[in-house]
Structure formats: C-alpha cells, structure tokens
Amino acid sequence: MQTLSPNMPLHIASETILKLLRARFHHKCQGQIVHNTSRALDLEARLARLEERSRHAQINDESLCDSCHARLGTKLFAMYPDDTVVCYKCYRRQGESTSVTGRNFKQDILIKPGWLVMD
Question: What is the model's pTM?
Fold first, then answer.
C-alpha cells in the first residue's frame, strides 16, 4: 500500500488494492484450513485414546496368560493393542511395546481407521 502514490487515480489503484485484498483473504483462509485440520487431527487422536482407555477385558478364574499360559485369576495383567492379555510378569519380561505375537508396536504402529483416515 505504501508503493501507491496519493496522486494515483482510484480506478488505476483499484487493481493493486484488489490483488492485495485477495492475497490477504487467501492467506487467512489457508491459515483457517491448517488450524481446523490440526484441531480435527487432535480431536481424532483424543477420541482414539479415549476408545483405547475404555476397552474392557473380561477376566475370570479360567483366563490364561497368552504367553506363559498361567491362570490369571487375581494376578495383575496387561492388555496389548492387539487384544492379547498377559500376566504382569510376562509383560515386564517382553516390554511394553512387544506383544506375545511378536508384534512391536513402536515400529509397527497399529492404525485403527478413524473418520479422518481414508484407505
């Protein structure tokens, strides 16, 4: 705007002013798109975390550890993202990222389709 002289007729300056306004509007729209996409991804991550935390495992006296096949009964146990259930001893031995099936969840991330994930 400073490059426009005060003596310039409005009909000539209008093209430059229009380009400036369009560029500002475009930049604002891009910022809103990035912001809303970021919010949507955050919301999806929070929803996925909530769903993971609300998973239930029904353990009774007959339930067995998927690793050592010991009865769980009243023992502490852990449940991996692939729904395998192990006693706490096996969980500590295998680590929190490796399942009984050999799947490493830090390297081979388990992606559950959400409303933003498209195949």
Answer: 0.50
